[in-house]
């Protein structure tokens, strides 16, 4: 029995990586290894993704002191991930995950060590946080992750600014064009969610117009969880963090795979923005200047 859905299998065939993906499927499990539990417990942030009732996909940053995520067992002795925090007020995913159990994707990333871990499953609201019952747990390689270190934490600055817009303005365009990191949320045809990371040198996330973006898809783990989802459901959401200020840009819209190859990319993805949300004060963490990944193509 494969862990991949038809969209993932189709992309693997399209790019000639089916055999490698089949071998790597053994690393995907529903159980949470001890090393993964220890990794989660040490992280001060996580990215969640999911779809709202209209099908729009959002990706959100959730932060807390190390230990705010941890693994526990329920009354049936099943493992679950406890997150003692929620997306901030004003985040469109907050109402989604607090209303009822939802399929979510989750990626925990540690920029200092370029480590990351992904979990897909069902999140149940607890009032002050979430319980995630995992369906898929796996790690990814450190490729394309910019190294950063926490330099401090900002105090509360009072009311959080929330701005909704249909497209990018000039200031937002500068943030997007300077990004070396963003996160993407996607879902398959059945609504199962995934959250993933994309990284590269500044400029790899190209602004083609105020509501149209494009990025190269560099060679990764050959599973194609994200591209596989996009191939069967174009709805997707992007999260672009401003590491200096704690501001986030959340974009929701539709993605399209462009199959032409280049020297460094196996394909590219175009993204059409339908709505964006800019939130201030999402993260108190302040980070050092990025040390770009040596794996990034020029």
TrEMBL record:
Domain Pyridoxamine 5'-phosphate oxidase N-terminal: 170-264
UniProt superkingdom: Bacteria
Gene3D superfamilies in alphabetical order: Electron Transport, Fmn-binding Protein, Chain A (2.30.110.10)
Signal peptide residues on this chain, from the entry's feature table: none
Name used for this protein in its record: Pyridoxamine 5-phosphate oxidase
Organism (species): Mycobacterium adipatum
Lineage: Bacteria, Bacillati, Actinomycetota, Actinomycetes, Mycobacteriales
């Amino acid at each position: 029995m494969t862990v991949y859905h038809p969209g993932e299998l189709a992309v693997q065939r399209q790019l000639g990586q089916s055999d490698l993906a089949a071998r790597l499927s053994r690393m995907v499990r529903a159980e949470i290894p001890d090393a993964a539990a220890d990794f989660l417990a040490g992280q001060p942030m996580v990215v969640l993704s999911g779809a709202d009732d209209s099908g729009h996909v959002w990706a959100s940053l959730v932060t807390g002191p190390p230990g705010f995520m941890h693994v526990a067992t329920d009354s049936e002795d099943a493992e679950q991930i406890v997150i003692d925090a929620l997306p901030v007020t004003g985040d469109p995913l907050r109402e989604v995950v607090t209303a009822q159990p939802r399929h979510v994707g989750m990626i925990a990333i540690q920029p200092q060590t370029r480590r990351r871990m992904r979990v897909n499953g069902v999140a149940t609201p607890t009032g002050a946080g979430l319980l995630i019952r995992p369906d898929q747990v796996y790690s990814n390689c450190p490729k394309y992750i910019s190294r950063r270190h926490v330099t401090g934490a900002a105090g509360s600055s009072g009311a959080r600014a929330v701005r909704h817009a249909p497209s990018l303005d000039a200031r937002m365009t500068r943030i997007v064009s300077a990004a070396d990191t963003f996160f993407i949320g996607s879902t398959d045809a059945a609504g199962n969610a995934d959250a993933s990371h994309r990284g590269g040198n500044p400029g790899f996330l190209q602004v083609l117009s105020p509501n149209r973006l494009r990025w190269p898809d560099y060679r990764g783990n050959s599973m194609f969880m994200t591209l596989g989802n996009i191939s069967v459901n174009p709805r997707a959401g992007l999260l672009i963090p401003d590491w200096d200020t704690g501001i986030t840009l959340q974009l929701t819209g539709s993605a399209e795979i462009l199959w032409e190859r280049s020297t460094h990319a196996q394909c590219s993805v175009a993204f059409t923005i339908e709505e964006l949300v800019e939130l201030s004060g999402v993260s108190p963490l302040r980070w050092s200047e990025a040390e770009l990944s040596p794996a990034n193509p020029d």
